[in-house]
Amino acid sequence: MKIVWPHSLKNSVFFLCLLLLFSLGIFVPYIAFAQNDAGLQCLDPESLSEEGERRDLANFPSLELFPRDNREPAAFNTGTEPDLPTRVTEFSGGLRLLPVQGQVYVLMGAGSNITLQIRNERTEDGILLVDAGSPESSTAVLGAIEQITSAPIRLIINTTADRHHTGGNIVLGQSGARLATNSAGNNNGEERGAAIIAREEVMIDMIVEGTEDCGWPNRTFGAYPRLTQSFNGEGIRVMHMPNAITDGDSFVFFRSSDVISTGDIFNTDRYPPIDLEHGGSINGVVAALNALLEVTIPALKNEGGTYVVPGHGRIADESDVSEYRDMATIIRDRIQTYIDRGMSLEEVQAQRPTLEYDGRYDQGLSPEAFVEIVYLSLDQAGGSQ
C-alpha cells in the first residue's frame, strides 16, 4: 500500500526539519564551547554595562575566537620586528627559550614548561600560550616574551588546574588582548585581556582551590572531548584526557608544526603527579599516554617526527613517550600483582616496584609517594584495566 502525503504536509515537515537544523547550527557551538565571563570583572572593568551587569552569554558571537578572511591586520608589528630566536636564549629569572619545530617554542624555568606558538608577520594573530607557569615567574615570563616580539598574547590554554601551570594567568592574561568579533565573524577591534581556555573541570578545581577570579578561564569547553581551532594559520586541537592526572587534563596538538604540548600527562624527569582528590588515576594516565602515542609520529616515518613538550623536563619525541607509558604500565601491573596477593601498602612499598626508574624520574614525587598513589588508585578502581 502506497502512502500519499499531502503536498502541504510535506512542505510543513520540510520546513520543520530546516528549522531544527538551523537551531542546532546556532546553539551547538554554545553547548560545545561554554564561555565563562567570570574573569572579565578583573581583566576589563570597562567591558561591564553601566548597571554593572556582566555581558550575557548570548552576546558572544560564536565558537570562533578570531576573525579569519575578512579581518583587518592586527595592530602589532608596525615597525621592524626582530627575528625570532633560532637557538637557546637565556633570560633573567633562570628562563630559557628554545625553538621546538615549526611555529612552536618552549619557555623553561617558569615552574612548568610554557609552550608558545608565535609568528611575527603583521597579519597574523599574535601569541598563543599553553599554560602560564607559576605566579612567582609570571613577571619574568612576560618580560622574556616582550623581549622577543611585540605581538600581543591572544590566547592561553590551561592543560590542568595546577598552580604551576595556571599561576601566570593573571599577569599574562591581563597583559594580552583578544580580538572581538560580531555574529558574522567580522573584526570589531580588541578587548583587553587574553582569552583563557580550559576544560570545565579545570575551572571548577580553580574555584574550589580559591584562585582569584581574575585567573579563571573565560572560555571553557565540556560537552565534547576535543576542541579544534585555527590560530596563526595553523590547526590546533585540544584533547581532553579524563581521569589522568586530574579529571580535567588536556594536551594540545599543533598540527602543521607537528608538536604536542602535554601538560603533566607526560614528564621526562618525574613520575606522574596523580591527584586522586581531583579525579586522577593510574589507569587514566596509562590511557592518556596511549592516546598521546596515537598522534605522535616517530622520526623514522615522518622525517623529523613529532616533538613533544612535557609539563616538566626536556623536549621529547615518540620514543620518550613510549618509554614513559611502559614505565607507568609496568609499575601499575606490578603493584596490582602485589594487591592481588593481599599485600598491604607498606609491604608493597618494601618491594620497591619502581626501583629501576627512580634515578630517572626523581624530580617530583618520591618513589614511596608514587607507589602509595598507584596503590590507592588501583584499590579504588578495583584493579587495573
Describe this structure in words.
31% of the residues lie in helices and 19% in strands. With 385 residues, it is α/β, with parallel strands linked by helices. The protein has a domain at 89-180 and 192-319: 4-Layer Sandwich (Metallo-beta-lactamase, Chain A), CATH 3.60.15.10. The strands form 3 sheets. An 8-stranded mixed beta sheet has the order 1-2-3-4-5-6-9-10. Strand 11 and strand 12 form a beta hairpin.
The main β sheet shows up as: 8 strands, mixed
Helix/sheet category: alpha/beta
Q: What's the total helix number?
A: 10
Order of helices and strands: HHEEEEEHEHHEEEHEEEEEHEHHH
Shape: globular
Order of strands, main sheet, comes to 1-2-3-4-5-6-9-10
CATH superfamily of the domain at 89-180 and 192-319: Ribonuclease Z/Hydroxyacylglutathione hydrolase-like
Assess the beta-strand content as a share of residues: 15-25%
On the 0-100 scale, what is the average pLDDT?
Answer: 79
Task: Please count the beta strands (DSSP E, at least 2 residues each).
Answer: 15
Q: At CATH's second level, what is the architecture of the domain at 89-180 and 192-319?
A: 4-Layer Sandwich
Weakly predicted, low-confidence segments: 1-11, 21-41, 43-79
